[in-house]
Amino acid sequence: MELKREATIYDIAQKLDISSSTVSRGLQDNPTISFKTRERIREAARELGYRHNNFASSLRKQKTNTIGVMVHELNSTFITSVLSGIEKVTSEAGYDLIIAHSSESFEKEAANALNFFHKRVDGVIASLSFDTEGLEHFRPFEEKGIPVIFFDRVEEESNNAKVIIDNFRSGYLATQHLIEQRCRRIVLVTASLKRNVYAQRYKGYKAALTEHGIPFDDKYVLIKDLSEQCGVEAALQILKMKPRPDGVFLTNDFSAAVCMQTLKEHGIRIPEDIAVVGFNNDTIGKIIDPQLTTIDYPGRDMGEIAAQNLVNHLRGISDISHISTIVVRSELVIRRSSLRAPL
What we know:
6-stranded parallel sheet; Rossmann fold; 43% helix; 4-stranded parallel sheet; 434 Repressor (Amino-terminal Domain)
């Protein structure tokens, strides 16, 4: 079947016997064109199946009204809430989103960055993968003056604008809470310490132990990928430890829930035998029995703040090159999984 060619403003002009410039202004709802003529133009456009050529228009204006959002995964309540915050701000500001995920791969992240660059996005909001080292793949944006703002997983030493929580404080609070519940052998289950979020939570964990006179033992630090399988593996490793740990801090709620379930299947009472604290305040924490103590990680707020700062830069209201680090609030949410009965 022969494809029908795209209708143009010249086809509309010919149909209505008016100039193409009148059609162009009418389609832009220019008030210099009478309301009746604008209605005739819109009706003719519908009849002919006319579509506005956004690409050509973008090339003329040197902007696409699109923002690239790069995340490390999509199967996450936290990331979903961040995207919700970003979308709220950008849609109100008239920007479209292109969303890409790295699947925790630096190579895919670099390819996504190049794809965003060639799609001429006006700006980028990004969270880095587990194994990303350096920001060279974002250099083309810097050279073209295209703003990039990072959130959650960032390069701490970079001068780029970034939106994070105080991961050190959060790790400290989670560990201190377990110590206050009479835990002395506390396991930390976390991910690659190359990433700022996990490195800072690890430092907070160590600091809380030290300040409460509990010796640090690296056998209690399990570096994993925070997947479903990670929760099972962590539980099985904990069961083999002698003496058995009496507290676990997992830096991901889903892994924490799976770990709790596996421990319970092996006769461990939560929190009487082992107290558990998670991280992110995902919905699963309210469903698991007992409900999970966690760190509330306000993803929607983080998304809104990152997006608003980027949009303000694009509108000339502010300059993100003058922004270093924005710290979003986080807090400990205490539930039954960590509350051991008093002596």
